[in-house]
Design brief:
globular; 10% strand; binds ligand ZLV; binds zinc ion; Arginase, Chain A; single chain; 11 helices; binds calcium ion; alpha/beta; eight-stranded parallel β-sheet
């Protein structure tokens, strides 16, 4: 279909397991695992699988999960029984162990299997990069950046990204982590806080009082002690509501090109949370699919081994559009595919006559007022440049 063939360029692998779709966080919870079904079906409808190596990912093993998490947390996660939702929406129920069972991280049927599936795909993706069998490895079911060593947080139970980066570090001296989810990538930042082998860069909406998780200020760049190797290795790009494609992609390119020049990573881990798109149920930005995907395009052009993860994204049809288009970017076909979504059974009713690349007026959900000034964005680039003066790779 559409003349998609094996590319001469990058070798791309796609890591996916349809089992993840069947789990539910609860009726009113914004995280909908079936957005992965929509993504997969759009990718297939365009025939993109013919240009990739497709793997049915497996569940991560106990050993893989405990490469980052503590044994007692994983033991608890594996055995804890689902329970009715507590009424306490403020999430300060004193009975919560490991922050499980509140409204952000509910206990649901099959939770352990869901988490280990997500981590399994990301782990496999990283291994394909390590063995040089892929140049780009895609795991849309991963990207759960808030999970801590012994704690669930913000819809994330297992930090598949940290587990994948630990694999990349077996082969590569330095790994760059980039996070374009609208939320701060706090779990990944914290996990590699004390090492100079991982640099983390998160772009996010920042409002310490009112926007989750409240961390990730411009001045937070790792341990304050100069004797700690992790100092200056956390980069944060705090943004306000309504940032546009043009501002965001320019900012992304200037920050990331400076980071690459200084840090010279052997591999890149890119979290592509789609809640930074316009109209997202939880997000605040005005990005279109093109602006979001320009980050993937930029990373691909660097010709550095790349693992791509999913993450947030709460308006499922927009999530599927972005991740399908970014899969096309990975295989180098985004300029060739028709923007009219192909008629395909799962999509027939949902997407008929809709574009893969909706404008700000067509995208589902309302755009926000842009509260990002050029002055502030320039200050951000300046601060990042100054931090990088301390980095020697
Ligand atoms: O996209 O939640 O604001 C990666 C990711 O980055 C909070 N949680 C917590 C902190 C105190 N609150 C209140 C708890 C609310 C629990 C229910 C919702 C239910 C319906 C609609 C929205 C939410 C919600 N929860 C919106 N924002 C939150 C955040 C967590 C955001 C996690 C983002 C995860 C996958
Ligand atoms: Ca982010
Ligand atoms: Zn998010």
């Amino acid at each position: 279909e559409y003349g998609i063939t094996k590319p001469k360029g990058s070798k791309v692998s796609f890591h996916y397991n349809a089992e993840m779709e069947k789990y539910h966080f609860g009726e009113h919870h914004p995280m909908k695992p079936w957005r992965l079904t929509l993504t997969k079906s759009l990718v297939s409808a365009y025939g993109m699988n013919f240009a990739m190596d497709n793997y049915t990912s497996r569940a991560a093993t106990y050993e893989e999960l405990t490469s980052f998490h503590t044994d007692d947390y994983i033991d608890h996660l594996a055995t804890v029984a689902p329970q009715p939702q507590p009424l306490d929406v403020e999430n300060n129920n004193p009975d919560l162990r490991f922050n499980l069972g509140g409204s952000d991280c509910p206990l649901f049927e099959g939770l352990y299997n869901y988490c280990s599936m997500s981590a399994g795909a990301s782990f496999d993706a990283a291994r394909k990069i390590c063995s040089n069998q892929s140049d780009i490895a895609i795991a849309w079911g991963g990207g759960l950046h808030h999970a801590k060593k012994a704690e669930a947080s913000g819809f994330c139970y297992i930090n598949d990204i940290v587990i994948a980066i630990l694999q990349l570090l077996r082969i590569h001296a330095r790994v760059l982590y980039i996070d374009i989810d609208v939320h701060h990538g706090d779990g990944v930042e914290e996990a590699f806080f004390s090492t100079d082998r991982v640099m983390t860069v998160s772009f996010h909406k920042y409002d310490p009082q009112y926007f989750f998780p409240g961390t990730g200020a411009l001045e937070d760049n790792g341990p304050k002690s100069e004797h700690n190797p992790g100092a200056h290795h956390a980069i944060n790009v705090p943004l306000n509501d309504g940032i546009t494609d043009e501002q965001y992609s320019k900012l992304f390119e200037s920050v990331i090109s400076k980071v690459i020049e200084k840090f010279r990573p052997g591999a890149i881990a890119l979290q592509c949370g789609a809640d930074s798109l316009a109209g997202d149920r939880l997000g605040r930005f005005n990005l279109l699919v093109e602006g979001h995907a320009s980050c993937v395009e930029f990373c691909k052009k660097l010709n550095i081994p790349l693992v791509i993860f999913g993450g947030g994204g709460y308006t499922p049809r927009n999530v599927a559009r972005a991740w399908a288009y970014e899969t096309a970017v990975a295989i180098g076909q985004h300029k060739n595919i028709p923007t009219q979504i192909p008629i395909h059974t799962v999509w027939r009713d949902r997407f008929k006559n809709e574009s893969l690349l909706p404008t700000i007026h067509q995208i589902l959900g309302e755009p926000r007022q842009n509260r990002n000034t050029q002055k502030r964005l320039t200050e951000i680039v300046q601060h990042v440049t100054e931090q990088l003066r301390f980095v020697n790779a």
